[in-house]
Amino acid sequence: MKIVVVGTRGIPNIQGGVETHCEELYPRLAAMGCDVTIIRRSCYVTNDNRITQYKGVKLIDVYAPRRKSIEAFIHTALALIKARKLKPDIVHIHAVGPSICTPLAKLLGMTVVSTNHGPDYERQKWGRLAKSVIYCGERFQARQSNHIIAISHVIVDILKERHNRTHNVSLIYNGVNIPVKSTSTDYISALGLTPGKYVIALGRFVPEKRFHWLIEAFKGAQPVDMKLVIAGDSDHNDAYSAQLKKMAHDTENVVLTGFIKGEKLNQLMTNAALFVLPSTHEGLPISLLEAMSYNLDVLVSDIPANCLPELESDDFFPVDDIASLTQNLSRKMSHPRHHRQYDLSNYNWDNIAKQTLDVYNNILNN
To answer: Which parts of the chain register pLDDT below 70?
Structure first.
């Protein structure tokens, strides 16, 4: 079975939830016998990841302009033209923005599976026109995909209520690996951090993550001997990311690490006291699942995508309520719950890969 994947920026070690999803999923499908090719956006390929194969997955780089307003659309259109030449059994389009090219994929005669990672048109970084275009992507996805994978119950409901799409929709969650926790502290020591004495947040520097409010809440919580670490960066240098970095630089006890993975991230997650996710928009946040896999205490906004059944009522605060965020952050920092246990059986990547393969097989058999 030949699968070509488009819509993602690429793998490996490229920032983003969709990218993490693809980096975990497709090597597993390749190991299960699928011929998988991921078409990457050329503007995210660096000397560190300029490779043609990753864990059995073939990688092809196709041009993409590094401009957030047109990057996904232009790249996906070019990627689909390239994909057609590869004669795949299935082309898999990730995210609703790139799904605006679903009619092109169908016009080229390809069978389309798409994954809806969340209503990206709700992200604040987009203007009115861009939001309309991305919403059209979700509509085209709902109308023309042979099968849709939704990563949360929230997205299943959106497809049903907004687009009347109930047939050939599968709920397959995002996943998480259970980590082998780091026994080293050299990286966090270099950052001036002490184990158990810092709060961590993780994600891209975009307005809907509300990292600017997290910094304000951290200042207002008046923590004793605690620091705030924000791991991540922006995909595109813009006014918001510049403002956030200045705000962090001007605030005592706030540390920015940039985009990190591997051992550095392992050390940070292993030794944190609390994970915070104040965002207004998510699909099913892999960063939250990662924090839970490290047995961290968590504090998250009460948006539907964050309301996992494995969490408790005092793990939430009302979205966009900075006073409540400040109050709950102070409470959690004063009385952290160490080594919490969560049932993560629903988020096993091996099971997710098997479920995805079942979708592929069912489409081809039918």
So the answer is: 124
**Which of the 8 DSSP states describes residue 178?**
P
Contact yes or no for 177/183 (Cβ under 8 A): no
H or E stretch covering 142: helix 128-144
**pLDDT at site 253:** 94
Query: Three-state SS for 60?
Result: strand
Q: What is the pLDDT of residue 24?
A: 97
- In this structure, what is the dihedral angle of CA atoms 17, 100, 120, 243, given to the nearest 10 degrees? 80
Can you tell me the distance from the alpha carbon of 335 to that of 341, in angstroms, rounded to the nearest whole number? 17
The secondary structure element, H or E, covering residue 282 is none
CA distance 130 to 128: 6
User: Alpha-carbon distance 117 to 150, whole Å?
Assistant: 7
Question: What pLDDT, on a 0 to 100 scale, did the predictor assign at position 237?
Answer: 79
Q: Among positive and negative, which fits the CA dihedral 209, 210, 216, 219? A: negative
What Å distances lie between residue 334 and 222, 274, 327, CA to CA?
Answer: 10, 11, 11
Contact 239, 164 (CB under 8 A): no
Q: What is the pLDDT of residue 223?
A: 75
Q: What residue has token string 């059944």?
A: 309
Q: Is 249 exposed, middle or buried (0-12, 13-18, 19+ CB in 10 A)?
A: exposed
* Spatial CA neighbour of 176 closest among 61, 290, 22, 254: 290
Cα–Cα distance for residue pair 316/226, rounded to 1 Å: 21
Count of residues in the chain:
366
pLDDT for 293 equals 97
Residue 231 pairs in a beta bridge with 202, 258
Give ∠ CA 295-297-300 in degrees, rounded to 5: 120
Pair 191, 257: CB distance under 8 Å: yes
Tell me which amino acid residue 196 is.
G
In contact, 173 and 153? CB cutoff 8 Å: no
φ, ψ for residue 59, nearest 5 deg: -120, 130
